[in-house]
Specification:
The structure is a single chain. This protein has helices at residues 20-45, 73-96, 112-120, 123-127, 132-151, 195-206, 213-222, 230-238, 256-267, 272-276, and strands at residues 157-161, 165-166, 169-170, 174-177, 183-185, 192-194, 210-211, 246-248, 251-255. The chain is mainly α and 277 residues long. The protein folds into three domains: 20-151, no CATH class; 156-205, no CATH class; 207-277, no CATH class. Helix 1 (20-45) crosses helix 2 (73-96) and helix 7 crosses helix 8 (230-238). It starts with 19 loop residues before the first helix and ends with a helix. Bound molecules: zinc ion (2 copies). Residues 6-8, 10, 18-19, 21-22 line the site of one zinc ion.
């Protein structure tokens, strides 16, 4: 017996404002948060396994050594958004004393996993409020954005540190490009660089790094050479097109530069494969 229909059009039970299916959706979204938190942390603080603090040191002098790791803004934005949404709903639940059977009194710790647990205890309580569908919409949407940030490439590209000299000191500001071509402007000293040239330079700095198939795939894809997946790296290895240069825990390690060269070869428009296929 219910006067309400859910946002999805299904009838609800017990005068709730949300149907069981939508409540389950929110429950599932909250259940993903601890895992997402860890994944987003990884994508935010280190991109694709290449640590620019350790590449290219020594030769040339102008390599991006001693720099913080590039940041994937896609992941960091999605995480900040999820956090803001969760804080708002935790506050709402606490202030309005949303019905719950949680055995833990008080507010959760200020972490995404703790807040998600807190909210999971209150999903049923929220479905009884007319504001409940808003909670479901906002939380499931924020969680979906996080999944997307992990699955897709970042929407800003790290283009290395600015090496313009400003009053005899290297500027050093981190450059982020919006696209993989065109210009990138330093936010500090306004120097302008060609994105393509910057990326080539970063690739060169990463070339001699060794990585296992999946790290290699992520690194090379991130650097924008072309999308690459681990399966393709393994296929290359089976066919002897790429050779392991080392091993870690039994996993073969390949040279980043070798993968870039192979990708470029496969992508060249005038390969002999083209006639055949
Ligand atoms: Zn529904
Ligand atoms: Zn600069």
């Amino acid at each position: 017996m219910s006067d309400n229909d859910c946002r999805c059009g299904r009838p609800t039970r017990n005068n709730a404002y949300t149907c069981d299916t939508c409540a389950d959706e929110m429950f599932k979204a909250l259940g993903d948060v601890p895992w997402l938190d860890e994944e987003l942390e990884t994508s935010t603080t280190k991109v694709a396994g290449i640590d620019y603090r350790r590449v290219g040191g020594g030769k040339g002098g102008k390599k991006p050594a001693e720099r913080p790791s590039p940041v994937s803004w896609g992941a960091s934005d999605a995480r900040a958004h999820l956090r803001a949404i969760m804080v708002a709903w935790v506050k709402f639940c606490a202030e309005t004393d949303v019905r719950n059977s949680s055995p833990y009194p008080g507010l959760p710790n200020d972490t995404l996993p703790a807040m998600s647990r807190y909210l999971m205890w209150r999903v049923d309580g929220l479905t009884l409020l007319d504001i409940g569908p808003d909670a479901i919409d906002e939380i499931t949407d924020a969680v979906a954005k996080c999944h997307k940030a992990i699955d897709t490439r970042p929407d800003k590209w790290y283009a290395g540190p600015c090496n313009a000299e400003v009053e005899t000191v290297e500027c050093g500001a981190d450059l982020y490009a919006l696209a993989d071509r065109g210009d990138v402007k330093c936010p500090v000293c306004a120097s302008v660089y060609d994105v393509g040239a910057r990326r080539a330079w970063l690739l060169e700095a990463a070339e001699d790094r060794l990585a296992d198939a999946s790290t290699l795939a992520r690194s090379v894809s991130w650097l924008g050479a072309a999308p690459l997946n681990a399966a393709r790296v393994r296929k290359w290895a089976e066919r002897g097109r790429i050779t392991a240069k080392g091993h870690i825990d039994g996993r073969p390690l390949y040279r980043v530069g070798d993968a870039i060269t192979l990708l470029a070869k496969d992508a060249a428009p005038d390969t002999t494969d083209r006639k055949a296929g």
